[in-house]
Amino acid sequence: MKEVYFPELSDKIVLIYLSNRTSEETVVLENASFQIQGDKTFLVGRIAEGTTPNDWASGVSTAISWDSIEQYLVFDSLQEYMDRIARSYTGENFN
Predict the structure, then answer these.
(1) How far apart are CA 86 and CA 66, in angstroms?
(2) Three-state secondary structure call for residue 7
(3) How are beta strands 26-37 and 40-47 bridged, if at all?
(4) CA distances (Å), 83 to each of 70, 80, 89, in order?
(5) Can you tell me the distance from the alpha carbon of 24 to that of 64, in angstroms, rounded to the nearest whole number?
(6) Secondary structure element (H or E) that encloses residue 61, with its range
(7) How many C-alpha atoms does 68 have within 13 Å on its Cβ side?
(8) Mean pLDDT (the chain, rounded)
(9) DSSP 3-state assignment of 19?
(10) Residues 76, 12: contact at Cβ < 8 Å?
């Protein structure tokens, strides 16, 4: 039987790109962990503060099917995530 590895994300911020959404429609989780629900694997966490319009979903628990995740980026803190997002709007990454 093949061993399954899941990264430890509980103290990280995870930016998630979903395969069924545009690249602008991302999800940012804090305190994420993996759970098996039914026969499926989910990444479960809370929506990070300051990452949704008007913070309408801040702190809300959510579960995202692992099968629907196209890509994810891991940040050490919410501040690191915010700093990098801010850079993307200033043109610093378009030298």
Answers:
(1) 28
(2) coil
(3) antiparallel
(4) 23, 5, 10
(5) 17
(6) strand 61-65
(7) 13
(8) 90
(9) coil
(10) yes
Residue 80: which of 3, 11, 1 has the closest Cα? 11
Contacts of 69 (CB under 8 A, 6+ apart): 16, 17, 18, 19, 43
Q: What is the mean pLDDT of residues 56-79?
A: 96
Per the CB < 8 A criterion, the answer to whether 69 and 16 are in contact is yes
pLDDT greater than 90 at residue 77 = yes
The pLDDT value recorded for residue 92 is 52
Where b means 16+ CB within 10 Å and e means fewer, 40-69 reads ebbbbbbbbeebeeeeebeeeeeebeeeeb
How is the beta sheet containing 61-65 ordered, strand by strand? 61-65, 40-47, 26-37, 13-18, 69-75
- Alpha carbons within 13 A on the beta-carbon side of 65: 7
Rounded CA-CA distance 6/34 in Å is: 7
Tokens of 66: 């692992």
Amino acid at 74: V
Identity at 44, one-letter amino acid code:
V
Is 0.90 topped by the overall pTM?
Answer: no
